[in-house]
Amino acid sequence: MVALETDTASNTSTSVGIPNADGMVEEETTRLTGTQQFVTFAIGAEEYAVDIMQVREIQAWTEVTILPNQPHYMRGVLNLRGIIVPIFDLRRRFDQGDTEATSIHVVVIIAVGDRIIGILVDRVSDILTIDGSEIRAVPDLDDSGESEHIIGLVTAGERMVALLDTGSLFRHEIISSSLDAVEEPFAQQG
Amino acid sequence: MDEYEQFKTTYFAECAELLGDVEVQLSSLSDGSQDPEVLHAIFRAVHSIKAGAGAFKFTQLAAFSHEFEALLDRMRDGRIAVTEQGVNLLFKASDILSAMIEAAESKTQQSEDFGKEILDEISLIVTGKLAPSQTIKNSDDNQDSQVNQESAPDEKLTYQITFAPKTQLFKHANEPLLIIRELKSLGDLTSIPILKNLPSLAKMDGEEAYLAWNFELISNVRLDEVEEVFEFVTEDCDLEIKTVSDNSEPEDEIIEKTSVATQSSDPANQTAKSPVTAAKVTSIRVDLERLDRLVNMVGELVITQSMLSQQTNDLPSEQFPHMVRGLEELALHTRELQESVMSIRMQPVKSVFSRMPRLVRELSAKLNKKVNLTTIGENTEVDKTVIEEISDPITHMIRNSLDHGLEGTEERIELGKPDTGNVTLSAEHRAGRIVITISDDGRGINRQAVMKRARERGLIAETATPSDDEIDNMIFAPGFSTAEKVTDVSGRGVGMDVVRRNIQALGGRVSIQSTPGKGSRFTMTLPLTLAVMDGMIVQAGGDKYVIPIPNIVESLRPAKSSLKRLPTGQSLVHIRGHYVPLCSLHRVFNINGAITDPAEALVVLVESEEFGTTGIVVDELIGQQQVVIKSLESNYKPVPGISAATILGNGKVAPILDIEAIYRISQQELRNSPVPDDSDHSDVSENVQDSLASKEAATLAAQNAEIPTPSIG
Known about the structure:
By secondary structure, chain A is mainly beta. Chain A contains three helices and eleven strands. In chain B, helix 11 runs antiparallel to helix 12 (321-344), helix 14 (356-367) runs parallel beside helix 15 and helix 15 runs antiparallel to helix 19 (495-505). The two termini of chain B are 66 Å apart. In chain B, strands 15-19-20-18-17-16 form a six-stranded mixed β-sheet. Chain B has a five-stranded antiparallel β-sheet with strand order 2-3-1-4-5. Chain B has 23 helices and 23 strands. In chain B, strand 19 (602-608) and strand 20 form a beta hairpin. The chains are: A mainly beta, B alpha+beta.
């Protein structure tokens, strides 16, 4: 229930399972030399990540208001301190079944361009600090078109984490001219 | 230079206001106003623009406004007569001025000779070389001396200036540095600061004015141009300007100006000061963003308050008397607070109305019709969000009245009408809404032509016999235009339907009344604000929705016997002799768990210009409440059937229904998958066959030729 504000990636307190980012000062300095920080979260065994600068806050799942005739992965809208925010179910978006959302599920509120959206995931796991050179390209295997929403892959220990391109993932739902301006800071590094 | 940028922003904001004033004054001038104050007012506005332009080094703007001002100056003291051509020239000049300001604001480079034609024309008139507007032969000394000075710019003068700002000068957001810079631009400037009042650093108050200056300016400019530099600060400083002529001919012209003795010799100058002094006491300028934040916060407060009262509704008042009373007071105060905050954003519609005389002027010239525009109630106030939106519809409807409504001059004379057509634009408050009417005394709507066109376009069935009123309102149908030829004045027949749609999007309505030969009248009603709304909260299958109260006619629980069905599957309810189509919210929105039998559910009768009356079937009514309108589209794509959303007392989002879209969806669903007719009352279709099909349904009927839809007449 406790909202965790990360407006600037500086105050990452622990409340929903994010380990304290002890390298805050380090982050400021290493950013200059090409390292990036990502918030990683999981659906079942699969791990995904978004740029920490995109993340506005993380909160536990609460009941949303359903909007009529929307795609099944659009769960509804939430009142985020007076702003109405659409919530997307990442599991459904990737056609991996349904999430029986409960209060232990987590909504990650992120900014995509000038839009604020929430994505429903099972849990938030980590903050990952990686160098741009560690990002691997996605192997071009399937032609489902879904891999285009993944910017790159990184390895964290034994795990593989997919870096999400949230702008392209929900392009149809949040069409806005500002999307053109969505930065892809790692694109040129990857 | 952040501060500098900030000054600039303020300057441009002021320019916009000043240009608005100029427009208003020019209009009254073109109406033949003889009031000298009109020209003074224009002069002051242009002068203020010029002063700022000089300070910010917008050279082109400054040069142009200088000439403009010179022309106005000569007009106001009668050296140049105010003729019609003259007024036209002023109009053109104000256009160029506004284009230049725009360019300066957006930092776009304009070509060197932008507006040169007008500039040249002005210069010629000012210097008396061109006299299309009959320069009055008024050989008073003043003019001669001025001409002399202008023709002999080589004569250098030395000015000795003492300038001591007072504290108010800073409080009124003036900056001595800018003044000194401007002074410097006039010629060779030597400045000696006077430091005698400067206290030690420890005793210094940051907001006090301690410095003063002695300047010596050697320049060929006239005394009044030097004075102009200080024009805006004369009351906030001690100022002394002495002229020492260079050719050893000391003029003892000493002008002394202090804040106490503002005995300006120029009466125009004095009038220029008085409104400014009055204004600074009664109003302040507030950044719009701050105001919006305040409005938003109060909106949140209203939501919190309604949550509190909802949670404590069942509190026994005998046990918690203070608490209950406190909550009641809180509700009262919140409502009052909200009203007063909203009233801050209220603006008179004058800002929109004032643009219309200009429009009428230009159009009547183009159409070669004589038109007299009367505006009534321009001080009627609405929220700024509404003001921004009403300008286009009004413009469009006035164009329409002029182009289609009013007859040509000869035709009017033949008809025995006065040759000048009348258009009246008025605004008033009525029942918590603003009503804007645009009426003309033209030919009215040609109903035969409308019917013919409507049939051609398939907008109504061949057999339909609509009432006069209904025919008149067909001009709002999509793709409708009866103009014999397409003119560039009122568009290509995409006009009135767009007007209606835009007004409806604002929660407003528009309709037309017309009397053939006598004229027609557009009536447009709009909510006073787009920030809050009175809504009825309804429930369907566990979800709550808001229906805008202005749409609601009544709600009822229909008797089973009053429910009918058409062969198409369209459900109807029979109320007081009328058949009203029903659409079930749960079907349109695919809501699970809602009551499906209309006989057990509740019908909310809603009304709209587009389709008349229809009944929305919901589970139950929760209650009426003022809701804060929140945009859904700031973070998501538009959702059909939902215009916006609000936040209820429990913190949950509730969609606000767009009833017209809901009706359209339900019609579409009927077409796509007609519900099989399982009932025994298909005979109703005969009854409704000949009643007027609404436009929307009629359009569908034209495409589909099988859904006759009734509406309450």
